[in-house]
Design goal:
Blueprint (H helix, E strand, L loop, with lengths): L7 E14 L8 H8 L8 E14 L10 H16 L2 E2 H4 L10 H13 L7 E7 L5 E4 L8
Length: about 150
């Protein structure tokens, strides 16, 4: 490898937060919501201990040996994930979810959008949100699928 060759790497960091929500769409009747979301449509909501894995990608800096300083990534994740979401009622405490159903897919989109505002441009690679050990959403910033 020549000294000028760039090496790309992906760097991931995880956090865990607790939050409650109710799966309920304003576009559906109460009966339709209950049929679609079942027990997750409980009017009193329910909670999760979410695990979020954020992955950034970029060139390994030849001086620092890093894609990104982990201390910086930790601070960005604190601001974008922990502060707005931890120990919150997603539907009542997070304005984004006043009009968007608080599914894990939409939690991933919220986190992506929040991190995009903080991280250096183009470095965010993916956001994984683990709602449970069995249910995981991976979001890479895709907005739509052309049909």
């Amino acid at each position: 490898m020549s000294p000028r060759s760039a090496r790309l790497a992906r760097l991931s960091r995880s956090v865990t937060f607790s939050a409650c929500h109710r799966l309920h769409s304003k576009s559906l009747s109460d009966e339709e919501n209950l049929k679609l979301f079942g027990k997750c449509n409980n009017p009193n909501g329910h909670g999760h201990n979410y695990k979020v894995v954020v992955t950034v990608r970029g060139e390994i800096d030849p001086v620092s040996g890093m894609v990104m300083n982990l201390t910086d990534l930790k601070e960005y994740m604190q601001e974008a994930i922990m502060e707005p979401l931890d120990h919150k009622n997603l539907d009542k405490d997070v304005p984004f979810f006043s009009e968007v159903v608080s599914t894990t897919e939409n939690v991933a989109v919220f986190i992506w959008d929040s991190l995009q505002q903080l991280l250096p441009q183009g470095i965010l690679y993916k956001v994984e949100v683990h709602e449970t050990e069995q249910n995981v959403v991976v979001y890479k910033g895709e907005e739509t699928i052309v049909r």
